[in-house]
Structures are given as structure tokens and as C-alpha cells.
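Below is how a single chain appears once it has passed through the pipeline. First comes the sequence as given, then the structure the pipeline wrote out for it. We keep one example in the README because the format questions we get most often are answered faster by looking than by reading.
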Amino acid sequence: MANKKRFRIRDIFNKYPLLDRLRIETMARLFDKGVTAIDDSYRSTAVISEGAKDYVKAVNMGKKRLEFTDQKSCIFAYYHGQMVVLMALSPRDRMTTLASNSRDGEMIARAADRMGFGLARGSKTHGGMKAGLELMSASKDNRNLLFNVDGPKGPRHVVKDSIIRIAEMSGLPIIPVVCDGRKNWVSNSWDRYTIPFLNTRTIYIFGDPIHVANGISNSERESLREDLSERLAHMYSMLSSFWATV
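Resulting structure:
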């Protein structure tokens, strides 16, 4: 007897595109409202390295429009499961984030737009060239670029070389950033997506910049990728020790 096909809710949305668009818009609205509520509830602490102080002038300011004439542009590098760090970055109207062309990417893109971020759409497999050009355009407009280093499908905490190439082409340094809440909700997804509970205290750690020269060799790119990977892993390990001291 043939195996019965397992029922999946996703199949319903595949069959009815209008229902899928409604799902995406509803989730984007809920995500935006939820993030705004979290923005207003978090009690945050930022640990900013000496080298990052030229790039990080304010933390967790929500949608407030801020003007810093002396703030330098960079690429903020973070883990896919810690996209909550985006809430800490300010001012949002100077930030451009990358979202894939998938349905889930569309939901993230709409939410990010509502939150005040600029957008570049594409991934390594779909629309990568277009996304790269949009990121380069944003960098020339003195905007910060936001890049999850192990996305969109993992493996978890494995830094891919894409960010090194973007840094090389744009001329922007990479600032690694990690975050954690005293109490969190953690999903069962591959990235262990983490969201701090409302009214909990959060910690953000910003590391020293990594500068990527133009025209470097493949071995130099790999060395820089490993450097970024090691820095993020070390900073991530520091998060648990922080809660042991406060």
C-alpha cells in the first residue's frame, strides 16, 4: 500500500496564493507590533568595544530619528537566530538589511520596512546579483548594512564567506554583534531563533571592527572569515557569563 502523503499546513498556502499573501501580511503586522512592544519594554545594556564606538552611537532607540554627524558606516554581523539585535541598532533609517525572495523572506521584508529599515531583496540562489548591487548602492549612500552570517538556512553559527566579499566590495568594516535576554523564548528551528521575553533585561556586545582590503586573495578571505567566526563565537560565549555577574 502506497504511503499516504503527510498533511502540511504549508500545502494549503501553496494551493491558495491569496490566503498565503494574507498570512504574510498578517504575520508582518504582528511582528512589527510585537517588536514595537518589545522596543518599549526592554531594559538594555550595551558593551561597546573601543574600536566600535565610532560606529555605535546609540542602542535600542526604536523608530526614533537620530542624527549623528560623526557616526561612521559599517556592516553589522550577527547570527540568524539573533536577528533581535536589529532592534538595538540606531538610527534605523540609516540601516539596510537583506531579505530573501522566499515567502518567509517577504514576511521579514514587510516587517523590516514597517520598523523603519531599508531593504535589499535576494539570496545566493535567487536574485543575488540584484541584492548585491542594492547593498553596494546603500553603502555608497553612507548607510549601514545588516548581515546575518549563517543564513538563510545554516548550518547554525557557521559564518559564510558572503559577508567578507560584501565588505571587500563596499569598503565598509565589519562590526560583530551578539545579544541575549535574561529570559528568552527559543524556537525549535535550525537557527534556535531567540526572542527575549517582554520586560526582561537584554545585553548587547559590539566587537572591534574587521577591515577587509580590496583585491585580497582567497586565502586572505578565508582567514578573515575564520577571524570573524572566532570573534562571534567568543562574544557569544561571553553572554552567559554576563548574567552570572549581575
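The chain is about 40% helix and 20% strand.

See the next section for the split statistics.
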